Amino acid sequence: MLIFPGRTEYIEKYGRPARDFLDAGLAVLAVDWRGQGMADRLPRAPFAGHVRAFADYQRDVAAMLEVAEAQGFPRPFHLLGHSMGGAIGLRALTRGLDVASAVFTAPMWGIVIAPHLRPAAWAVSWAGKRTGLGHRVAPGAVPGCYAATAPFADNTLTTCPDGFAYLQGQLTATPELQVGGPSLAWLHEALVECAALGRAPAPAVPTLVWLGTRERIVDPARIAARAESWPAARLARVEGAEHELLMERPALRAQVMEGTLAHMRAHAADWRGGRAALSCRAWRPILSSPSPSAASTAPRAVSTSTRGARWTARSSPTGTPITRGPATAPISPRRPPGRSCATASATSGWRRRTTAPCSASATRG
Predict the structure, then answer these.
(1) Cβ partners under 8 Å of residue 276, min gap 6
(2) How far apart are CA 45 and CA 43, in angstroms?
(3) In Å, how far from its chain's centre is CA 145?
(4) Alpha-carbon distance 193 to 173, whole Å?
(5) Residues 223-279: pLDDT tens digits?
(6) What does the DSSP 8-state code read for residue 288?
(7) pLDDT band, residue 292 (cuts 50/70/90)
(8) What is the rounded distance in angstroms from the CA atom of residue 300 to the CA atom of residue 342?
(9) pLDDT tens-digit map of 95-114
(10) Number of H helices and number of E strands within the chain?
């Protein structure tokens, strides 16, 4: 299972779904996209949701697949993309991403912007990027990290108090995970990419698209139009759900999880099933000579694997994966409970992050 998170998100947010997928017999790999989570960020605007070009996310996808292959993750692969991860995932499918099936939850195939503000959003974001101000936060964006500061009442993420508290608890305990409003460059790239994805040929990959009836972040009309023009796709609506379908009330979340697993089973002839033993490892790709303008160019990946997979079998007796090259000082001054400490090196390549096998509590972040 390849998990493509949304904008502002981070690996640990998917601890609960990852555990469910592991229990169902899947190995799981998730990534921190460049500019968010604990991946590299732009030094002059570390808390802005920034990317130079949406095409750069495909470099992160390629790096993620390299890890999956190098660590022997079992095939066939399946894709789960949420929000911005849905846009990245659809683009990857059009480029031939080799997966047996795909599932998207509230995919960002359009952004909710008031009709009278949409022309201004295009113009201002285009101008900001062309004048060297693309790293600035877009006008009208929510200051700070919305998920960390918003009250539960009428929030646009979930109707589940427990899911909302789970998310805020992670962001409060580890402020380094927080990301603020989108930059002008991100906004312009997102608008361009959403328009292009609406015109892109429909991939042949069997796809299930989940959409809450209370969605207020991504554009439901654009999602429905894209799904309806896609012969291999099916749109499923979740009554009463907001944007975070995997963090919704138990009944709604169960509906999405059960439907997702059924969809994947239907398109995986060698599904192993059964309860999986859990182990987690984390890596971060290091650039040999990152430039200031490309400081947010490295994603971070975390993998969870079932017992018996080749990756687990190739681990050392202590459960520590075999890695290349030396590790130096942590890039983060903090090491919150249940998290590993990232290490960096002056040479290129993937470097192991020191971590212990995950327990259920560590899996939940």
Answers:
(1) 22, 23, 24, 25, 26, 27, 306, 307
(2) 6
(3) 17
(4) 34
(5) 999 999 999 999 999 999 999 999 999 999 999 999 999 999 999 865 554 333 333
(6) S
(7) very low
(8) 9
(9) 999 999 999 999 999 999 98
(10) 11, 9
- The Cα angle at residue 91 between residues 85 and 97, in degrees rounded to 5: 95
Q: List the CATH code of the domain at 2-38+53-113+201-266.
A: 3.40.50.1820
Residue corresponding to tokens 């108090």: 161
Report which DSSP code applies to 341. Answer: B
CB contact at 8 A, 272 and 25: yes
Pairing type for strands 279-286 and 300-305 reads antiparallel
35's tokens: 């500019």
Rounded CA gap, 198 and 86, in Å? 13
Lowest mean pLDDT among 13-17, 32-36, 75-79, 355-359: 355-359
The ranges assigned to domains in the chain are 2-38+53-113+201-266
Rounded CA separation 282/30 (Å) = 9
Distant-in-sequence, close-in-space partners of 129: CB < 8 Å, separation ≥ 6: 184, 185, 188
> Using an 8 Å Cβ cutoff, are 273 and 23 in contact?
no
The string of pLDDT tens digits covering residues 304-359 is 433 222 222 222 222 233 222 222 222 232 323 332 222 222 222 232 332 322 22
Residues belonging to the chain: 365
Tokens of 94: 């059009």
* Cβ–Cβ < 8 Å for 50, 135: yes
Spatial separation of the C-alpha atoms in residues 156 and 131, rounded to whole Å = 33
DSSP state, residue 359: -
32 against 290, higher pLDDT: 32
**CB atoms near residue 232 (< 10 Å):** 14
Percent of the chain with pLDDT over 70: 73
Whether 118 and 194 have beta carbons less than 8 Å apart is answered as no
Q: Tell me how far apart the alpha carbons of residues 312 and 274 are, in angstroms, rounded to a whole number.
A: 17
